[in-house]
Specification:
Rossmann fold, 5-stranded parallel β-sheet, 9 strands, binds adenosine monophosphate
Length: 179
């Protein structure tokens, strides 16, 4: 059993969602468990403590939930990386490829000062496409981003490895085999 097997047991797996062959790792059941959710935040915070993080950047939408807990715990700001068309102010964005089609992440252009230390946060890293786009966007904005933390890693999909190749230290609490 891994160290975080207690948290792993709180993540529900829904087979064939959103399409056949995908095992959807559903963190909504972890969020419903008060002590489990608090423990997840505490362990994620411990993984990046001491790195001088000034902002956590959460990826819409499930990343926001964990980023908010971390921002509170670490007493740092929270930067929202949003889907297109949501942010009201002047914004910058990065398009990235999905298996079918493309998607885009945006942030307010003035959200992050040059050289600020930012930690990336999301619920899960799979192929890494989303997280790499987030790193590219934050670096364009002048952020120093050398750490990222996820509740779940799917190591067989290689995303964490790609992030490491991009110079980012990757932390996670739980791993699942396969897709
Ligand atoms: P990727 O860009 O492939 O690393 O996918 C990461 C994003 O897709 C994250 O924001 C996840 O919330 C979501 N995601 C990808 N695969 C899964 C999965 N098997 N279960 C739940 N969420 C997933």
């Amino acid at each position: 059993m891994s160290l975080d097997a207690d948290l792993q047991a709180l993540v529900r797996t829904i087979p064939d969602h959103p399409k056949p062959g995908i095992q959807f790792r559903d963190i909504s059941t972890l969020l419903l468990d008060g002590p489990g959710f608090a423990e997840a935040i505490d362990r994620m915070a411990a993984s990046i403590a001491g790195e001088g993080t000034q902002l956590v950047a959460g990826i819409e939408a499930r990343g926001f939930v964990f980023a908010a807990g971390l921002a509170y715990k670490l007493k740092c700001g929270l930067l929202m990386l949003r889907k297109p068309g949501k942010l009201p102010g002047a914004r910058i964005g990065v398009d990235y490829a999905l298996e079918y089609g493309t998607d885009r992440l945006e942030m307010h252009a003035d959200a992050c000062g040059e050289g600020m230390r930012v930690a990336l946060v999301d619920d899960l890293i799979a192929t890494g496409g989303t997280a790499l786009a987030a790193v590219e966007l934050l670096r364009q904005a002048g952020a120093v981003i050398d750490t990222a933390t996820f509740v779940i890693d799917l190591p067989e999909l290689g995303g964490a490895e790609k992030l490491r190749e991009a110079g980012v230290t990757v932390h996670h609490l739980i791993e699942f085999d396969g897709h």
